[in-house]
Specification:
heterodimer, A: alpha/beta, Rossmann fold, 2 domains, 8-stranded mixed β-sheet, 4-stranded antiparallel β-sheet, about 20% strand, globular, B: alpha/beta, 12 helices, about 35% helix
């Protein structure tokens, strides 16, 4: 077998703690560094931890806020006269607050705009409208060097580690590139030390530095991707489907690693995924997206027990649970058809074309605003209360 | 005698200049009409190769298939190619994971569906077209007449998978092998497709072999489950036994490492260490030993046999004791 034995994964957790001391506090980026940044390894939380945020529920200032964020991609036709004949409204007016030191989970089906939203927050695609502020800095107004400095504070972990790592670069080179680009660590000896530290942080042996991505298993490659993301000591990591390309038994290793790093480095996460069970496990707050808009948002423990939006209900009921008795007894809400085109979304409520609870009034002609139906539980549905009270029943053929 | 009987199936891939790979090794199981068998395993466990071997879809060169596969009393391995082609698509059908690569991109959906009808049911012209439209309607594709004229890229992922299912059930096969039929699909679409497969088994009495890595899918659909690791079955049981009282450390490991939508707040995930490529050869050890928390000395020196034990068969020198199994099993993890 040419592949390498996963050296740490053994107990599922990464190597020894205590490398954060090397972090230079001055590297914390602009706009006054925050407590959430440099939590000393192993010590009891300097910055708020995920659990702290969720349990206390105190409205600490969010690390990042987006308001009215829109990403519209033009649809062009014609070879000579390059006309724009419409727009794909991938993200169409999203408000988002990422709790400092916590995890925001973004779920939705393919094509709902969740990945585009994640990229827009980092300006990997340019939003066409709206604002993004991180620690008081208007991210969308930044240019040149200021943007580069800001990028250091927000990093990304991608779904497929094989295609997001350059196959011709050694791990050493992959991990020292950001250090060099941002001139965080100068001198090749110091960089080499830092690379070894990073590998240790994500549970890979120092010997991994000299090898190339193809020599690693999927889980190990994702560890390299994570090491690259934390190399610049960011405050925010956006992870787009971080485990969905991995084998089931490996997924838990990576989920645990992400949680451990959050605890140790005081990171704030935005986790984008379609697997609700994974998102529920890792997140403090979950937002459900449908066709470019957030339709429901609440604490993760509540989303499963009291889903209020019809789409969330259908989504929850569709997730299989590895429990035969439960599977036999539970009701499933089947949605008909597919996601409508985001270039031409339905009028009024976007979900109405597939909603088993759809009503003759309001659904087709009024856009439902996101409103607080219960404390800290926002829903974009005209009839959320009536559906929850059982006054409006779903179409009978939608229940199986 | 069951509809499908697989006896001591093995597949060895040989590549020039490299060591042979034993992808499937001594796999035996049977499926009856109206029954659903789940085959669970990670990448490299041999679950897909098993199904390709049964269907006779492995290349004749480079893949040595051994053992015995009997379908409706006839031996499939070593059957003449034209005979096998008559069976495939008619009595034996298969659905693949990625519907886009299983469909021909330059041929309209309609022609791909009618091809099956012409080949196996002798239908032509408008008859075949009408039947094709009925089949698409049956699997829940709206506006079937329009869809028949379209090409695969014009259909969504869920609709493509439905079109494949329509082709697979066109001749009311006795056995349907579905290899990760919903892995590429969203959960709401997955629920639609699984419901469709369930109907098929219930109403037509089709025997279904469902290959998947998703234990949740298995829990809702299958009567019996084979758990495979590195080419061999390590635990086989009816689904309730497997989920409530799992005994192989790999099975309990899988169940413990997946988050459940309904699990208690803060319940930790217990990953299986290492990766599926860290194996020992079955010929002189247990392949799972390097990743196994319960591994003993004997596990690295003696091959464990698949031993029947009441409602299950288990291949393990040091199985998980009942109390531990109950804790990690389905009932223990309910909130």
């Amino acid at each position: 077998m040419s592949s390498v034995v996963d050296p740490v994964g053994r107990d599922g957790s990464a190597g020894p703690a205590g490398r954060d001391d090397a972090a230079d506090p001055a590297d914390r980026g602009p706009a006054g560094s925050t407590a959430a940044g440099s939590t000393a390894a192993g010590s009891t939380a300097v910055g708020p931890t995920a659990a702290g945020v969720a349990a206390a529920g105190e409205p600490a200032a969010p690390l990042l806020s987006a308001r009215g964020l829109e990403v519209h991609f033009p649809i062009r036709r014609g070879l000579i006269l390059d006309r724009t004949i419409g727009h794909v409204r991938a993200v169409d007016g999203v408000d988002l607050d990422l709790p400092r030191g916590g995890t925001y989970g973004l779920v939705g089906e393919s094509g709902c705009g969740k990945s585009t939203l994640g990229r827009a927050l980092l300006r990997l695609v340019e939003p066409t409208a709206g604002t993004v502020t991180m620690d008081g800095v208007d991210v969308l107004a930044l240019k040149g060097e200021a943007l580069r400095m800001q990028r250091r504070r927000m990093q990304m972990v991608f779904q497929d580690p094989l295609s997001s790592l350059d196959p011709r670069q050694s791990v050493e080179s992959i991990l020292s590139e950001p250090l060099q680009t941002h001139r965080v660590v100068s001198g090749s000896a110091a960089r080499a030390t830092r690379v070894r530290e990073l590998l240790d942080t994500v549970g890979l042996p120092a010997s991994a530095a000299g090898r190339y991505p193809h020599e690693f298993s999927g889980g190990q490659r994702q560890r390299i991707g994570i090491a690259r993301a934390v190399a610049l000591e960011p405050a925010l990591i956006i992870a787009d489907e971080p485990v969905s390309a991995l084998d089931v038994s490996i997924q838990a290793q990576i989920v645990n690693l992400l949680e451990e790093l959050q605890e140790r480095l005081g990171l704030t996460y935005l986790v984008i995924a379609h697997d609700l069970a994974v998102v529920r496990h890792i997140s403090d707050v979950i937002g459900v997206m449908y066709l470019g808009v957030v339709v429901e948002q609440t604490a993760s423990r509540r989303l499963y027990t009291e889903p209020l939006h019809p789409y969330t209900r259908a989504l929850m009921s569709a997730v299989p649970i590895p429990d035969p008795d439960l599977e036999d007894s539970r009701q499933r809400i089947l949605l008909s058809g597919d996601l409508p085109s985001p270039a031409n979304p339905p009028s009024g409520c976007r979900f109405r074309t597939r909603c088993p609870w759809v009503q003759e009034t309001r659904c087709a002609d009024e856009v439902p605003p996101l409103r607080e139906v219960r404390p800290d539980h926002v829903v974009a549905c005209h009839w959320a209360e009536q559906i929850d009270a059982g006054e409006i029943r779903p179409r009978a053929d939608a229940i199986v | 005698m069951s509809l499908l009987e697989v006896e001591d199936l093995s597949v060895v891939f040989s590549r020039r200049g490299r060591r042979d790979v034993r992808a499937v090794d001594g796999v035996s199981f049977s499926v009856d009409a109206g029954q659903t068998l789940g085959v669970v395993g990670e990448s490299g466990s041999g679950k897909s190769v098993t199904s390709l071997a049964i269907m006779g879809l492995l290349p004749r060169r480079g893949a040595a298939v051994g053992g015995e596969v009997t379908f409706g009393g006839r031996k499939l391995l070593g059957m003449r190619r034209d005979e096998l082609r008559d069976l495939r698509g008619k009595e034996l059908a298969m659905i693949f994971q990625d519907p886009l690569s299983a469909l021909n991109p330059v041929v309209p959906i309609g022609r791909q569906v009618t091809e099956v009808l012409t080949r196996h049911r002798g239908m032509t012209g408008t008859d075949a077209r009408r039947e094709a439209a009925r089949l698409l309607d049956l699997v829940g594709i709206p506006d079937p007449d329009r869809r028949l004229r379209e090409y695969p890229h014009q259909l969504s992922g869920g609709m493509r998978q439905r079109a494949l299912i329509a082709m697979a059930v066109a001749c009311q096969p006795k056995l349907l092998i579905a290899d990760e039929p919903t892995t590429a699909l969203d959960v709401t679409i997955q629920a639609q497709i699984l419901e469709l497969l369930k109907e098929l088994v219930r109403q037509e009495g089709t025997a279904l072999v469902l290959i998947t890595h998703d234990l949740g899918v298995v829990a809702g659909l299958c009567d019996r489950v084979n758990v495979m690791y590195s080419g061999r079955i390590v635990e086989a049981a009816d689904r309730r036994t497997l989920f409530v009282d799992p005994r192989h450390p790999y099975t309990t490991g899988l169940l413990g490492s997946i988050p459940r939508l309904d699990s208690a707040e803060g319940a930790p995930l217990l990953p299986i260490p290492g990766s599926p490529t860290d194996t020992l050869p079955w010929s002189s050890a247990c392949a799972f030993a390097p990743r196994c928390a319960r591994s003993l000395e004997v596990c690295t020196t003696v091959t464990p046999d698949l031993e029947p034990d009441g409602r299950r068969a288990l291949r393990c020198h040091n199985p998980v004791p009942a109390e531990e199994a109950a804790a990690v099993g389905a009932e223990g993890r309910r909130e």
